[in-house]
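Hello K.,

You asked for the raw outputs rather than the summary table, so here they are, unedited. I folded two proteins back to back in the same session to keep the settings identical. This is the first:
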Amino acid sequence: MKLIRKLVRRGFSARLCIPFILMTLGCSDQKPDMKPSSEGDSPLGFARDIKGFMAKFCFECHGAKNTESGLDLRTLESMLKGGESGPAIVSGNPEESLLFAMMQDKKMPPEGAMPGAGDIEQVRRWIASGAQP
């Protein structure tokens, strides 16, 4: 009788543990369509990590009311399309991206406060990691 009880207990606990283990192994926080940035664990996204400070520094001239040089920086799609000078960003290549070059060379914005070094580095990382939305 003791042997039967032991087997029942082991079988019962195995039936509880196996589904739990399988569910745990199948769970992941990482989205499959986004590449992690080379410098960080999680990918940077335009809406979450870039758009906020760009609204502060860029949207006055390149936003809803004005699109100087035909450039609207409010969406990833409009940045990839670009303006009169071509695309604002080249996904995966910050060195070829006009947006990054203008910020790094402190040419944009032309007046007022400039984005900080951390913001500029974040734009570089975002573009380098594939410029995710």
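The second followed immediately with the same parameters:
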Amino acid sequence: MKQSIWSFSKFTLLGLFVAVILVYTFGGWGCQQVEPEKEMKPWVGKWTFVEFADSTGVKSPGIGVYHYYDNGTFASQIITSTERPNLTANPSTPEDYKAAFDGYRAGFGAYSVNEEEGSLTYEYTSNLRPHRVVGEPTKVYFEVKDDIMTLNYKESGFILTLRRESENTSNK
């Protein structure tokens, strides 16, 4: 019995169609698609607190962490004094509460960067400090050298020094 050329062609066309779909979907036979490299932003990552300097230049150690994500969000928590009151006294005094509150800073929100000026502008979503108005921009000057970043809060008169804990962190 004679086989029709059309049945062979249908089989060949179907196989060719499946092959094209597979190549298009998976990027080639056994080839892995390569994502373009993201630009490394030196401020992005997890930074641990090293020290705090006030407007008089007096430096003090503290503890804390800053996170800058590559999607333009940040979060920070720092204690600027290692001698923060314990508040376990019953009753604690208003002075104890004030000292505990004054030594703690925390906030989160969005940030933008002006690389030419060397500044970050924070837009707080929420924060512990009442002088940081939610939605009002706060400009901070920054400098990154190797694994050290300084944040200069010129309006408040203090400078923070941070050390990189990990490379770029993403939060998508």
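The longest strand covers residues 104-114.

Happy to rerun anything if the numbers look odd on your end.

Regards,
P.
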